[in-house]
Write a structure and sequence with these properties.
alpha/beta, Rossmann fold, 2 domains, 12 helices, globular
């Protein structure tokens, strides 16, 4: 699986940045591939290589009804010639929502389970039941986060990003944050904006990095106050920010991940969190397909159009 477009670094300019003596740019991972964009490209890359190495013909993974991971896995499985199974949280889920409709169009078989079973998805008994039902498959965890995913996300930063003092990314399952942490330079600070409600993410990330033997050279910061009520939750000021950001920069942000990161960034800039002359890089982790699901759930139209074939 190769880039269709090399990730570009796009500088951003605004009076507030000039006032605070800051430089800001965004790494447009949303542009790397039209169907498998953002951090999902990097998370799936080596997992698919491993599936082929093991001679597997089927990918099975887990996700919610509006999951970026389900969307991307369905697309890349079809591209790479795998059969795909999506185990979806919630038996009463609206299967006509844009994410699941797209997954079906890409050939993914959807298997709905109740929330109790979904919570136990990593147990031996649930995995064995799935093997009995579907046969031999290559398993990719919810959100795509495992050691191979972190190997992929550790390639996001590199020589072209070495001059930045601060790197910001949203945090969901933590695989992207861990990969970025592994490749961080001693002169850099990685700021993770959790889109989940609660402080538990700190321990989960600590355990994840310990499991993967990641010992960052730079500084790590995790912010947990910008979740807007929790995963996939939102407030009017978040939508207003996404609209404002589009008007100013013509860059689309989604309400689940990148919108919350962008809002957090701007609040921190206004409150002098970054020292003068800092060079800040924000990671656009993709996820724009979630905008369709957001509109489907809420009826709120976002200022940009997003369509994927």
């Amino acid at each position: 699986m190769d880039y269709l477009h090399e990730p570009r670094i796009q500088p951003l300019f605004h009076d507030l940045l000039a006032e605070k003596k800051l430089e800001l740019a965004i790494l447009r991972l949303d542009e790397v591939h039209p169907l498998v964009s953002g951090n999902k490209f990097f998370k799936l890359k080596y997992n698919l290589q491993q599936a082929k190495k093991e001679g597997k013909s089927m990918i099975l993974t887990f996700g919610g009804a509006f999951s970026n991971h389900i969307h991307a896995t369905a697309a890349v499985s079809q591209i790479e010639g795998f059969k795909s199974i999506g185990v979806i949280r919630g038996e009463g889920t609206d299967s006509k929502n844009p994410t699941l409709a797209y997954a079906r169009e890409k050939g993914m078989e959807l298997h709905f389970v109740d929330r109790k079973t979904y919570r136990e998805k990593n147990t031996y008994s649930v995995i064995e039941d799935l093997k009995q039902k579907f046969g031999d498959f290559y398993l990719i965890p919810e959100g795509g986060t495992n050691g191979l995913a972190i190997r992929g996300t550790s390639e996001i930063l590199g020589e072209k990003t070495s001059s930045f003092t601060h790197v910001l990314t949203p945090i969901g399952t933590g695989g992207t944050f861990a990969g970025l942490a592994e490749s961080l330079l001693p002169s850099q600070t990685l700021v993770g904006i959790s889109v989940l409600k609660g402080e538990f993410i700190r321990k989960e990330l600590e355990e994840l990095m310990e499991q993967q033997e990641i010992r960052p050279q730079g500084q790590l910061q995790i912010e947990t106050q910008f979740h807007f009520g929790g995963y996939a939750k939102w407030k009017p000021e978040l939508i207003e920010f996404i609209q404002w950001f589009w008007q100013k920069f013509q860059i689309p942000l989604d309400p689940i991940y990148t919108g919350k990161m962008g809002y957090a960034l701007w609040e921190k800039i206004k409150n002098d969190h970054f020292p003068s002359h800092s060079k800040i890089l924000i990671i656009h982790t993709g996820g724009l397909q979630g905008s369709q699901g957001f509109t489907h759930r809420t009826g709120i139209e976002l200022p940009y159009s997003f369509k994927v074939k």
